Amino acid sequence: MYAGSPIRPEEVLYKTDHSLIDQSMHARMGATTLNGDGFGFGWYDGSRPPGLFRGTGPAWSNRNLREISEHLETGLFFAHIRASTGSAVQETNCHPFRYRNWLWMHNGLIKDFPRIKRELALAVEPELFPHMEGTTDSEMMFYLALSLGLRSDPPKAVARMVGHVERVAAEHGIADPVQMTVATSDGARVWAFRYSTQRKSRSLFYSREIDALRALYPENPTFQRLSEETRIIVSEPLGDLPGAWQEAPESAYGIVQPGEDRIAAFEPEPV
Question: Residues of the signal sequence (predicted)?
């Protein structure tokens, strides 16, 4: 996820030492090294619902992704590379997912999802249910969060969503059901969550403040031209610049917004 000064997304997707495209082939911290079961790219231009481009093939070989990332400019975009945890490789299962002005992407899984899928689906609001297009646990989490108040209070809605999933899983004898890092946005702010029931969550990193990076690397031209509001949130650092990346705390969420960003503890809530 990138938020800040408008850039061409190729700067993040292709041009860093450990870019997202490199991670799709050589992930260092993920559950799998290879992430070739599809990809997605979502972006905001400030006046309309976000654009969305997804494909079922690997990101590293998609010529249209390279074309788009080289030619458009945006100050807020999501990018995702997928390694399926069991659901079909199809376009509607690729992240990010979109509902009106909201984007959502997820790294992780709901354990034994097929066993509790029906019961979870019954908690999705009837008016939202027709908008679900795919079959993934990740999209289910999105629509549960929307049903539980994402549009008015994202941290509370995600906490209630996780609490609901954990309760349903417990009723079916499923231990440690939730593994997630999640990013979501309404186009103005971004929320990122790191949590797992077992408290051993997938990796999540965020970039340090730009003024600190300028002080550390005064010769880097990229840091000199980005605004102080610029932030990048990633599963793995995009390069090996010492001091440039900080690991998100376990069981926490952060808000990237105009003005002061914030990090707080995250705990599931009963529904």
Answer: none
